[in-house]
Amino acid sequence: MKKLLLNTALLLALSLSFTSCRDTKKADSIEEAMENVSDAVEEAADDVKEATDDAMEATSETMDEAGSTLEKAADDIDEMANDAVDATNEALDKAEKAVDDAAKSTGKALQDASDAVEKEVQKITDEHYEKKKN
């Protein structure tokens, strides 16, 4: 019976020590898991911060490019408007010259017609006076 009692005490002692070790291991593994979770959360936060910074930088670059494109488009529109104004002014100058040339030609044609009519009138008048004299 003494052996039985000692064996039972030994089994009880071993049982308590293994149970105690398991609890310690569980506590250690829980602490380790918490540290792993904490590390993962920190890494995720760093990744989110990095992604946000990259997105902000890309947005800034895109806005700069859009601004440059808009400025170039405005410059192109301004240049096209100036070209249109120049072309219109040239067309108006040519039209004005054409009108002046047409007016001069018309004036010369009227003068020529007037001279021809005057000659004809003079001729008829001279013929009429000559017939009267005869």
From TrEMBL:
Signal sequence coordinates: 1-22
Region named Disordered: 96-134
Lineage top rank: taxon: Bacteria
Biased composition (Basic and acidic residues): 116-134
Keyword entries, A-Z: Signal
Record protein name field: Uncharacterized protein
Source species of the chain: Aestuariibaculum lutulentum
